[in-house]
């Protein structure tokens, strides 16, 4: 039985989901892949818990739930930050689930580069560093001969990156179009079906843990724009960065506009479009009953290919355990390659 020592940096909705998913699936993974997953460190933005013998996932969750911090984890709580952990802890795989920062890409950028330099594999759900330095990150991972996985950065539980790279690998992808943000789909669909107000649904999406730490990133289209950059690079092979995206969010969409569209048989959706020529995120009118007519946190993407024609995927685009499912898929894929 091979042991894999894991550091989880970031312990918000997604980090907690990762701990839960490991707790739920570790026995199954042991049996199926002969792999023993051990969380040797976890850190939130102000505290940490570290144990070379492995931390108990449920106790991590309980500690965070009850005290808001990991510092109070019995006997092993402390105050090391992410970088200090990477410097001090003996680990194999970094799971970076820190919040996205589209200005600097930090803290994910420094943590990831440090892990690469130390020969560690990295799985991330953070979109910031990928949207500004995709090429550099992939090149550095290659130079250091480590694995770098980021399935959960686009579409949460909706399979897209691994699916296209591995299952549609006979095809050239011409474009991808779809709903790439769960929070805005939740807001727009609740406004449409229940007449809820924009601000109330935005607050709800924060309470549900589907919005980004800074929800402006969702409603202003920044999150979806990051995802178009990640898809452009990883699937279309385009060397794109965040500033290449033409972005308009949904903050100016009124209840009146939604009602008017509805009367005419249309819905308003935030649509992301990726092709070699253009990266674009904007609210668009789509037909009721069309493939875009999806409610709640669902995401969808239609991948236009040369051989297979159009292939459409649908799945929950946000949520703690849903996003963690994609991270666990990446973790299993990393283990399988070792
Ligand atoms: N805030 C993001 C969304 C989370 O709503 O889609 C998943 O990337």
Question: What descriptors fit this protein?
Answer:
Rossmann fold; seven-stranded mixed β-sheet; binds L-homoserine; 338 residues; globular
Q: How does this structure look, described?
A:
With 338 residues, this protein is of the alpha/beta class. It is 41% helix and 22% strand. A hairpin with a 4-residue loop joins strand 2 and strand 3. The mean pLDDT is 97. L-homoserine binds next to helix 7. The site of L-homoserine has 12 residues, from helix 7.
Short description:
By secondary structure, this protein is of the alpha/beta class.
Write the topology of this structure:
Blueprint: E1 2-9, H1 13-33, E2 35-43, E3 48-50, H2 57-67, E4 77-78, H3 82-88, E5 93-96, H4 108-117, E6 121-124, H5 128-143, E7 148-149, H6 161-167, E8 173-179, H7 182-194, H8 198-207, H9 216-219, H10 222-234, E9 246-247, H11 255-263, E10 266-275, E11 279-287, E12 298-305, E13 310-316, H12 320-337
Parallel strand pairs: 1-2, 1-5, 5-6, 6-7, 9-11
Antiparallel strand pairs: 2-3, 3-4, 8-10, 8-12, 10-11, 12-13
Bound molecules: L-homoserine.
Mean pLDDT, all residues: 97
CATH architecture of the largest domain: 3-Layer(aba) Sandwich
Strand content: 15-25%
Distance between the termini: 13 Å
Find the CATH topology of the largest domain. Rossmann fold
Helix and strand sequence: EHEEHEHEHEHEHEHHHHEHEEEEH
Oligomer: single chain
- Radius of gyration over all CA atoms, rounded: 20 Å
What is the 3D shape? globular
Please report the number of helical segments. Answer: 12
Instruction: State the secondary-structure class.
Output: alpha/beta
Order of strands in the sheet with most strands: 4-3-2-1-5-6-7
**Strand element count:** 13
Share of residues in helices:
40-55%
What binds here, in terms of ligands, is:
L-homoserine
| CATH homologous superfamily (4th level) name of the largest domain | NAD(P)-binding Rossmann-like Domain
Low-pLDDT residue intervals, each spanning 5 or more residues: none
């Amino acid at each position: 039985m091979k042991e894999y020592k894991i550091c989880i940096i970031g312990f918000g909705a997604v980090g907690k989901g990762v701990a839960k998913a490991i707790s739920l699936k570790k026995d199954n993974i042991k049996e199926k892949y002969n792999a023993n997953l051990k969380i040797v460190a976890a850190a939130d933005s102000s505290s940490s818990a570290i144990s070379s013998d492995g931390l108990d996932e449920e106790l991590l969750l309980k500690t965070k739930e009850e005290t808001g911090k990991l510092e109070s984890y019995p006997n092993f709580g402390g105050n090391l930050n992410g970088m200090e952990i990477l410097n001090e802890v003996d680990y194999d795989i970094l799971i970076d689930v820190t919040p996205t920062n589209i200005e600097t890409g930090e803290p994910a950028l420094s943590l990831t580069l440090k892990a690469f330099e130390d020969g560690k594999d990295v799985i991330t759900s953070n979109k910031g560093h990928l949207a500004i330095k995709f090429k550099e990150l992939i090149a550095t991972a290659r130079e250091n001969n480590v694995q770098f996985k980021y399935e959960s950065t686009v579409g949460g539980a909706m399979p897209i990156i691994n699916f296209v790279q591995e299952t549609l690998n006979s095809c050239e992808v011409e474009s991808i179009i779809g709903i790439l943000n769960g929070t805005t789909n939740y807001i727009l669909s609740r406004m449409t079906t229940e007449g809820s107000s924009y601000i109330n649904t935005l607050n709800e999406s924060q309470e549900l843990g589907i919005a980004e730490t800074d929800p402006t990133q969702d409603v202003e289209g920044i999150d979806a724009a990051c995802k178009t950059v990640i898809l452009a690079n990883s699937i279309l092979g385009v060397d794109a960065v965040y500033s290449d995206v033409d972005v308009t969010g949904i903050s100016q969409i009124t209840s009146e506009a939604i009602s008017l569209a509805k009367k005419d048989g249309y819905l308003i959706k935030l649509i992301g479009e990726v092709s070699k020529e253009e990266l674009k995120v904007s609210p668009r009118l789509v037909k009721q009953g069309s493939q875009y007519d999806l409610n709640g946190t669902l995401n969808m993407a239609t991948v236009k290919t040369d051989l297979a024609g159009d292939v459409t995927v649908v799945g929950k685009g946000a949520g703690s355990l849903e996003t963690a499912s994609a991270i666990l898929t990446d973790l299993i894929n990393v283990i399988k390659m070792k």
